[in-house]
Amino acid sequence: MADYALLVPLVLALAIGWWLGRRERSKDRLDRYQASFGSEYFSGLNHLIDNHTDAAIESFIKALEHDSGTVPVRLALGTLFRRRGEVQRAIALHQEVLAFEDLTPLESCQARLALAQDYFSAGLQDRAESLLLEITDSGASGEMRDEALGLLVKLYQRESDWERALETSLRLSRNNEDVHQQQAHYCCEQAQQYLDQQQADEALQWLARALKYDSRCVRALLMQAQARMAQNNWKAAIRSLRAVEKQDPAFVSEAVPVLVRCYQQLHQPSALRSALEQSYQRSPTTTSLLAIADLKQAEDGHYQAASYIAEQLKRRPSVKGFNRLIDLQLAYVPDQARDSLLVLKGLTGQLQQSNPVYRCRQCGFSGRELHWLCPSCRSWGSVRPIQGLEGE
What we know:
Layout: H1 2-22, H2 29-37, H3 39-49, H4 53-63, H5 71-83, H6 87-98, H7 105-122, H8 125-136, H9 142-158, H10 162-169, H11 177-196, H12 200-213, H13 218-230, H14 234-247, H15 252-266, H16 269-282, H17 286-300, H18 302-315, H19 319-329, H20 335-354, E1 358-360, E2 366-367, E3 383-385
Antiparallel strand pairs: 1-2, 1-3
Helix pairs in contact: 1-5, 3-4, 5-6, 5-7, 6-7, 7-8, 7-9, 8-9, 9-10, 10-11, 11-12, 11-13, 12-13, 13-14, 13-15, 14-15, 15-16, 15-17, 16-17, 17-18, 18-19, 19-20
């Protein structure tokens, strides 16, 4: 309720200034102002002062009836209703504004945009789209047009219509990093549809577009490797995976398992080990550490692999690394130590399974699955692998 109590005085202050600007400055302007609104307006103010926001809003609604000059306040109250979750009241109020005969072109555009936002919140996609297209095709001002286009992009995104989302975003006048990042992800979504249909060539075309919009799009590089693997082009896939580290070292842990598979297909264990060790030196992650340990285990046995992990964990401890170290030690420790290790293994295993693997840097959402679009704050590319003791 505190937010609403702050918003209503601001709206009223703007409305009062606008009204006073229309009145002649005279000694009795307060009397004229009171006569214009009537007792309901001042009743609303009293409710507001007493922190009775709901009662205040009802009084303001009654005070504003049959007065088209209060369009800005009506629009603001409708927005407040929508934010409170009272979408039907917002729709009714904004429809009422649109029915006024003496609206200026700007007021008409503002009312249609507000109503489109109401429809969008209510899940009435077709109605929202129709109004938004009217605004964008009517020669609205740059800011108003961009706001309508931005809502259209969200609408197409909600419908998973990635191609139209991309086309609409390209019409935005603002041209910043966030928009380019969204455009790259729309291309990746299109590419994923082709990958699901086993059409790697078409997917690669969309991924090339993604990297054109955002050259640092790690998702496009990972998917590029996936498409090239589908074509059995293992060397090209490796190039894409090696590029991930240059673009964003935090995602090395996503590239390493796929990199291992590519080198295995080429039967190049030495090249794999060299690539992993170089990567680990530049951008150390637990996933890289364990991949190197796997190679050591295959070549030199459990003890050497365990010794290597133990040495590295002194510098960069992690639950995942410690859990793997216990697994290796169980293969060669005396029987009297096995029971203790098994108990410890159960504890670290539970800890590893219960910990989130990814976290959104915008809102803090966490989970065990990588979402390129955060389910909580709806930000693209903000979910990243967790680093440190409980992560990589």
